[in-house]
C-alpha cells in the first residue's frame, strides 16, 4: 500500500521573522506549492508483479482476458484495426457491396409449408407512375397477414411430423384381449431370444393383424422346468419384428394395430389353446424385460417395478396384468371377495337398512300399514300434511 511521504518542516526553514515581508511572501508561496506537490494523490504508472500475474492466471483458469496492463488504453495497433473496421462498415452501409455476394433465394427441400418470401414495396420516390398518390393513413388499405403465427397453423405442418407414441393411445382393459396379447408378447420374446438375442433390447415393430396371426399361430410346448419349445415358422416372426426407420409402416400401423383385435376374436383364440403355456418360465431378466416392454407397446399397460420380482411365469404375469374391474360400492367389493358374505350370520345389503326394512324382516310392517290405512293416515311420507306446529313452538318461530 502506498504511503504519503512525511513532510519536512519547510515553514520553519523558509519563513523567518528577520526576513523582509516581500521575501516572506515569496517563500510562503513556494512552501505552499511544495506542500501541494507532496500531497498529490495522482496514481503512479501501474507496474505488474509476478505475483499479480500468477493470481490473474488462476482466476481466469489460463491466460487472463483483456490487456496485459488494464490501466493503459488501446495500443497503436489496436487503434489502427478499429479504424480499419469502422471504414469497412461505413463503406458497406453506403452500398459498397462489390466484394460481397448476397444470395437472393435459397431452395429448401422439406415437406413443411415454408413461409413465402418477403417482398418490399417500392419507396414513393422510386415510383414513376404520375397517378400514384402516397397514402397518408391506413384507412382503405388492404391488410395482409404477418408471419408471427405461421407455425401455429396446423395446415403448415406435415403429417410425417405427427407424434407417434410408443404405446397405443388408449389402454386395453378387456381381460380376454389382454391374455391374447400377453401370449403374443411371450411368444415373440421366446423367438427373438432363440434366433437373435441382441434384438431383445431393441425397438420392435408393433405390427398389424397379419403379424398378430403369425405370432399366435406358433405352438408352445412347456417342459416341467418351465423351458419352452416353439413349433412353426419362427423365422418370419423375427423378420417382421425388426424396426425399419425408413418404412412408414412403423407410424401408420402403430395407431390402429391394437384396436383390430376385438373381444370376441380374443375369446375364440382362448378356446383353441390349453392352459399349459402359462407355465412358461420368466426367470430370465432379459426375457422378462422384453415381455413387459412388448406388453406396454401392445396394450399400454405398465407393469410396476415393484411387481417384477414376483413375476416368474406367464401365469403370475397375467395375475398382475389382468385385474378385475374396480367395484363402485363397498357392498359390491364385499360380494366379489366373498369372505364376509359366505358367513352364516352376516348379511350384506346394497344400501342403508331403515326402520321399515327392519319391520319387514320380522313381518310387522303389514300390520302397521293396515292400521295406518284404517285411520286415513299416509303409510309413507306426509301425503300433504304439514309438519307438526309444536316444533315451531319449541323453536320460537310461532
TrEMBL record:
What's the domain of life for this entry?
Eukaryota
Q: Which UniProt keywords apply?
A: Mitochondrion, Ribonucleoprotein, Ribosomal protein
Please provide, in alphabetical order, the Gene Ontology terms of the cellular component aspect for this entry. Answer: mitochondrion; ribonucleoprotein complex; ribosome
The UniProt entry, under InterPro entries, shows: Ribosomal_m50
Q: One Pfam family, please name it.
A: Ribosomal_L50
Entry's family note: Belongs to the mitochondrion-specific ribosomal protein mL50 family.
- List the protein's name: Large ribosomal subunit protein mL50
Which species? Answer: Pleurostoma richardsiae
Amino acid at each position: 500500500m502506498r504511503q504519503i511521504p512525511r513532510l519536512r518542516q519547510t515553514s520553519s526553514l523558509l519563513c523567518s521573522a528577520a526576513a523582509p515581508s516581500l521575501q516572506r511572501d515569496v517563500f510562503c508561496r513556494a512552501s505552499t506549492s511544495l506542500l501541494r506537490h507532496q500531497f498529490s494523490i495522482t496514481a503512479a504508472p501501474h507496474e505488474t508483479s509476478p505475483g499479480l500475474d500468477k493470481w490473474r492466471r488462476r482466476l481466469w483458469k489460463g491466460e487472463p482476458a483483456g490487456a496485459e496492463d488494464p490501466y493503459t488504453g488501446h495500443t497503436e495497433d489496436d487503434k489502427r484495426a478499429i479504424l480499419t473496421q469502422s471504414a469497412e462498415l461505413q463503406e458497406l452501409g453506403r452500398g459498397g457491396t462489390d466484394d460481397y455476394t448476397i444470395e437472393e433465394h435459397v431452395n429448401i427441400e422439406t415437406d413443411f409449408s415454408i413461409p413465402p418470401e418477403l417482398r418490399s414495396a417500392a419507396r414513393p420516390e422510386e415510383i414513376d407512375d404520375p397517378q400514384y398518390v402516397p397514402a397518408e393513413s391506413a384507412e382503405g388499405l388492404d391488410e395482409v397477414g404477418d408471419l408471427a403465427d405461421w407455425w401455429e397453423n396446423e395446415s403448415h405442418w406435415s403429417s410425417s411430423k405427427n407424434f407417434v407414441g410408443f404405446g397405443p393411445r388408449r389402454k386395453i382393459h378387456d381381460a380376454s384381449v389382454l391374455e391374447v396379447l400377453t401370449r403374443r408378447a411371450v411368444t415373440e420374446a421366446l423367438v427373438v431370444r432363440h434366433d437373435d438375442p441382441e434384438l431383445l433390447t431393441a425397438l420392435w415393430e408393433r405390427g398389424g393383424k397379419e403379424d398378430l396371426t403369425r405370432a399366435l399361430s406358433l405352438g408352445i410346448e412347456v417342459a416341467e422346468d418351465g423351458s419352452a419349445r416353439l413349433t412353426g415358422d419362427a423365422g418370419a416372426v423375427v423378420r417382421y419384428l425388426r424396426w425399419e426407420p425408413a418404412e412408414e409402416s412403423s407410424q401408420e400401423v402403430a395407431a390402429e394395430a391394437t384396436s383390430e383385435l376385438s373381444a370376441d376374436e380374443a375369446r375364440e383364440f382362448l378356446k383353441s389353446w390349453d392352459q399349459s403355456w402359462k407355465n412358461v418360465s420368466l426367470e430370465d431378466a432379459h426375457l422378462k424385460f422384453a415381455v413387459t416392454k412388448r406388453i406396454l407397446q401392445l396394450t399400454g399397460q405398465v407393469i410396476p417395478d415393484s411387481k417384477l420380482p414376483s413375476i416368474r411365469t406367464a401365469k403370475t404375469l397375467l395375475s398382475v396384468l389382468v385385474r378385475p374391474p374396480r367395484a363402485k360400492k363397498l357392498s359390491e367389493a364385499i360380494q366379489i371377495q366373498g369372505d364376509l358374505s359366505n358367513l352364516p350370520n352376516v348379511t350384506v345389503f346394497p344400501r342403508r337398512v331403515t326402520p321399515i326394512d327392519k319391520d319387514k324382516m320380522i313381518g310387522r310392517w303389514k300390520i302397521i300399514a293396515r292400521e295406518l290405512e284404517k285411520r286415513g293416515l299416509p303409510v309413507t311420507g306426509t301425503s300433504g300434511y304439514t309438519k307438526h306446529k309444536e316444533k315451531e313452538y319449541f323453536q320460537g318461530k310461532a
